Amino acid sequence: MDNASRRWRSKPLQTSNPSLIMAFFSCLAWLYVAGRLWQDAENRNILANLLMKNSVRRPKVLTVEDKLMVLGCKDLEKRIVEAEMDLTLAKSQGYLKSQLKQSGSSSDKKLLAVIGVYTGFGSHLKRNVFRGSWMPRGEEALKKLEERGVVIRFVIGRSANRGDSLDRNIDVENRLTKDFLILDGHEEAQEELPKKAKLFFSTALQNWDAEFYVKVDDKIDLDLDGLISLLESRRGQDSAYIGCMKSGDVITEAGRPWYEPEWWKFGDEKSYFRHAGGSLIILSKNLVQYVNINSASLMTYAHDDISVGSWMMGIQATYIDDNRLCCSSSRQDKVCSAA
């Protein structure tokens, strides 16, 4: 009996192991299915949110009225741009009156010319030589010249170290001679000469109303009466760009004299376009107005005469090549010569 009862008791123990294993795998299967169902639900929520956002951002269907409104705005924008271009053209041609300060003029009548003689901080002796030769000396002589319709001034900027002895010396000299046009917004330096041209023409225009504006180097002597006679013969001529016209090779090697950093813009021949030589450049009033209005966007090159020539190429300027303005010319009636 004992053996039989032991065999009877051992049978349930043998049959319980598969049940436990099945139950364990059932739990794993349930967890797996539940996890997949939860993950699918999350994915559906994310996809639904993305679809909702895309539907909000999707462009609306334009009605006929919407399309007409868009086209009307574009047409209005185009007309505004065209009006601005016409306004700039009118200003450049002198059709719009500007409020010119007459601070440098003792008369309300229009002058014949404003002549700016470039100078530098180290050119005090050269200025005194000019004052004793072709240029009037003293305030009274300058006033008499102005009565003839001509204003003449030495043109200079400011030192890189504002207010230093260089600036103070110029201020003292100007108080004595009254013959400077000081460009407070310009830093006087050789490499800044092209920018000096822009600022000179703009400042001269704002201070004096004249037929012509003349830039003169301090490396030449001037026959002032001869220049006045030449300008008198051109009085009333608009868009006049007058000088000793020339061209020349573009220097492409850095370190050489007259090197042009923008050499690659001048084509395969590497030759400058026709322009008035830098010793003496004459512009009529409407061309100076153009420079003044557009000075912020006008490109400058390594040399001031090239820069001025590039500005004139973009407008309908009348080029006047007068070899009386060629300082190296052999003509007896030339108005300038090397100093």
UniProtKB/TrEMBL annotation:
Membrane-crossing segments per the record: 20-38
Q: Name one Pfam family in it.
A: DUF4094
User: Which subcellular locations apply to this protein?
Assistant: Golgi apparatus membrane
EC number(s) stated in the UniProt entry for this protein = 2.4.1.-
Any GO BP: arabinogalactan protein metabolic process
The yes or no answer to whether the keyword Transport is present is no
Q: Which InterPro entries match?
A: DUF4094, Glyco_trans_31
One GO molecular-function entry: galactosyltransferase activity
Name-wise, this protein is Hexosyltransferase
To which species is this protein native?
Vitis vinifera (Grape)
